[in-house]
Input
Amino acid sequence: MRMMNPYMTLYQAYLVAGGSLTALGALLLFVGEKISPALLAIPRSRAAAWVLWGAAFVWFIYHLMTIPNVDLAGFPRSWLIVLFGGAGLLAFKYLPDLLSLRGLAVLILFASNEFLGAGFGQLPYSRVLAGTSYLLIIGALWAGASPYVLRNAIEWTTRSLRNLRLVGTGAVLLGCANLFAGLFWLP
Output
């Protein structure tokens, strides 16, 4: 992880995290029943795999191209790009099952890295974002290692209106906490 994040300020990180979580929660609360079939289709969808894994793949290759040489442990950058790039492309052919959920987990991990980088050295103002990021990291690590757990969580969420409202309310509350901290708590 970079010590200072030149790409995103703490304010922007709060807005992105809070806005994304609030939007997700609002979708589940207000149109959850209508989007349930689409949510259930995501784990095995080839299109979702291309979008989510593809975005994670591009972000990872970008990260490999931009990290300092000292972080490469002496390996030539081009070798790592070819090795990991090839592995990422081969995943489309040999690991297509639940690839979209793995891609989503990787995207969440990268986004959490950006959020934590934006808040580095800005205590106490970054605590809400850091807490949110660590919750997302725990969930993403679990989902990336066991994507069927995320698939089961999606199935549980879409099983009833009560579950949709419960998950939607939780996401809205967490999103609003981040928006509130970003808009009113920062100096």
Notes: Residues 26 and 168 are 6 Å apart (CA to CA). The chain has a mean pLDDT of 93.
